[in-house]
Amino acid sequence: MDEQFPRERVWVEAYIALGSNIGDREQLLNDAIKRIHLSPGIEVRRVSGIYETDPVGYTEQPPFLNMVLAVRTELPPLPLLRRLFAIEQRLGRVRDIRFGPRTIDLDLLLYDNVIMDQEELTLPHPRMMERSFVLVPLRDVIEQSHQLLEQVKAVSEASLQDGKEGITLWKTINWRSASEPFES
Fold this sequence. Notes:
This protein is an alpha+beta fold. The protein contains 5 helices and 8 strands, in the order βαβββαβββααβα.
């Protein structure tokens, strides 16, 4: 590559799941959104509703607030994941009990059309299609032309209809008005 010409910025769409069940859950979600949006090379485009969900796996813990963001990013998948882990850490995330309580959890669900299986990252997220607490908010923000749209819609609608998944809409937020003071 010729050093006198900078590389062209290539932006792709990615989807990030957020969850919190310790502390001020709503504030932690908002803080995570702001930190993601203000992070170089990432732009929050769409924000799902906030859903309250029963814990899965380790059930002896408070309910979660879950949501999904659609972002545009120029970061490759692994640097994006590492940036999310750094934000988790800044917001007090401690990883001591698998599927246990957490201040904030940020999961990279989808990154453009990338399919990868590495020790540090698997895309699409390997358990995404089994989790209503991910699929229901993902349905709110997934691009209408996305190859998984119909599957996401079908699974999430079935989860909401039978009522056994323990997920309810908790709140909607207006990202544009909520983010105005934070735009760079």
